[in-house]
Structures are given as structure tokens and as C-alpha cells.
Amino acid sequence: MNTLYVGTYTNGASEGIYQFEFNSESGELTNKQLAASSENPSFISYWPDKNFMYAVNENDNGHISAFKVENDKTLTFINKVSTEGAHPCHVAVNEQGDKAVVSNYTGGNFSLHTIKNDGALNEAFQVIDHKTDSIASHAHSAQFFKDDLLVSDLGRNAVFSYRLNSDKYELVSPSIVNLDENSGPRHFSLTKDGNFIYIINELSSTITSAKKTENGFELIETLSTLDANFKGESYCADIHLSKDEQFLYGSNRGENSIVVFKRDTVSGKLNKTQNMSVHGDWPRNFTIDPTGKFLLVANQKSNNISVFKIDEISGTLRFLHAVELPSPVCLLF
């Protein structure tokens, strides 16, 4: 059994972060319980050894909360600090476990925090603002890779690159790869070696692929995430590589699907193979279970989590079942 944690919005029936037991043989989700009361914990992330968990509190006055993961998998609140911006929507922790970065969507900035040995967060040691006089910034996600920090800004239509210099992050590039106008980069996935990046663009419903070079990244291609026959409005949300990096998945809110791509591991190019209905409404975040055999989707508006079996040969999805939960928006194993 694996434990699945679920971040939610609490402006309805939800009370915070929930947990389920997940059977990695059958795909069943059971034993739902409230893991921790928290206000709008819309994105959650682990410390590297999974001893601690960090949850944004997505409000006008944004905060980030730290929790200890107990032996019985319940969560104990440690502390919370300001994210120095409105509506934080993403948090990531570096592989050393000593820093966290929080993206503030409405604030248009991101905050960097050091983490104490007991998992507690310190107040921000650096806040970087992307706002300009003419463009509204919407920092949507950020990830550490060694000494680099990549930040996806939907409003600025770019993925920024920073590098750690002594104790502060300095700008390397305001755009690692040229994106089509009004793409709206939201989240991205890096291969384990850092040689390829896949950026999912919320506004244009596309994925942009790029390859690492000596001087940064080089554009490979930009592909639609939607079925050729779909004509309505749709907005991308989340993106993940499969465990073996042979396949790439993205979520479409509107088409209400998960798009599946087969990935050429040498060239980095993608070939679309499936647009699978999520059996719900507004697929926000999704995740792949630790075995790599199942994909689970948080359907925000239909208040359910859908479970799919992954075909290990083709990477395509087969729907198994769904469980109810109010306003699920982030899934974490």
C-alpha cells in the first residue's frame, strides 16, 4: 500500500489535505481521511526523504505551511511563513532539502526559503519580482536542477533561468526558449539528466520541447495537446514524464482529457498517441504512482479522482474507476 495525499481548495466542503491508501496491484483508493486542516492547500510537495511536506495556502495573503509526516502517515503542523505574494500556487524543494521555492500567481513573484533540520521554514531569504510596468507577471511553477532554478511565468510568456551564486539566485536568462505569443507556460518536466525540457502552455494548449545545449536550450518543436476534432475552449494544466521517460502526459481542462505522447529518447521528439477522457471535469494536477503502472487525475470541478491503468508497452491509459473528494487539485505519492 502507498499513501496518496491530496491538496484541495477549502472554499466548499473540503477542510484541507486528505489522504488515501492506494493499492498498487488493483488501483483501488480506500481509507479516506483528513490528514491536516489547512486553508486552500492547492499544491503540496515533499522534502526529499518524505519526512516533511510543504503546502501552499493559496490566498490574497499567501503563506507556505510545513508539516511533519509521522510514521502512521498523519501530518503534524510545524509552522508557516509568508510567501511575500498573493495566491501561491506551486512549491518545490531542492534535492538537498535545504531550500524551497514558492510561485505566487497573482503576486507575480516567487519566494525562496531555507529549511531547518526539523523541517521548519524560515522567512524568505530572497523574493524575485517579475512584474513590469506593461506586463502582468503570473509566476506559476519553479523547479531546482542542481544549482539552477527554472521559473515558468504564464504572464510573461517565458521560462526564466536563474543560477545560485554564493547565497543568492541571479538571472541567467529571461527566456530559455522562444515561445509562441500568448502560449502561457504553466508547468514543465525535465528529464532526469536535465537534457530535455517539456513545457505545457495553458493558453495555447500546446507542449513546447527543447534540448539542453552549451548555451542554454534549443527549441525542438511545439505540438497541440488537443484532439484534432475538439473545437471548444480548453486550458492545459499539468505535465509529467513516465518513470522510464518513454512517454509524456499532459492535462487538458475543457477537453477534459489526458493527452499521451510517445517520446523519442534520443531526439526528444513527441508523437501523440491518445486523448483519454478523465471521466470528470477540469483535470488540474495528476500523478503517476510509485510503481509507474497507474495514473491518477484530480478533477477539480467534478469533485473526483480518476484512476487509470498505464499500458507498459504503449503508455496509453485505460480508465478503472473514480472516487469522490471535494475540490481536489493536487496529488502526491
Strand order of the largest sheet: 3-2-1-28
Strand content: over 45%
Shape: globular
Total strand segments: 28
Which parts are unreliable, with pLDDT below 50 for 5 consecutive residues or more?
none
| CA radius of gyration | 19 Å
Largest sheet data = 4 strands, antiparallel
Short overview:
By secondary structure, this protein is an all-beta fold.
What does this molecule look like?
The protein has 333 residues and is mainly β. The chain is 0% helix and 56% strand. It has strands at residues 2-8, 16-22, 29-37, 44-46, 52-57, 63-69, 75-82, 88-93, 99-104, 109-114, 126-129, 139-145, 148-153, 158-165, 168-173, 185-190, 196-201, 206-213, 216-224, 235-241, 247-253, 257-263, 270-277, 283-288, 294-299, 304-310, 317-324, 328-332. Strands 3-2-1-28 form a four-stranded antiparallel β-sheet, with no helix packed on it. Strands 4-5-6-7 form a four-stranded antiparallel β-sheet, with no helix packed on it. It is globular. The N and C termini lie close together (11 Å). Pfam families: Lactonase (PF10282).
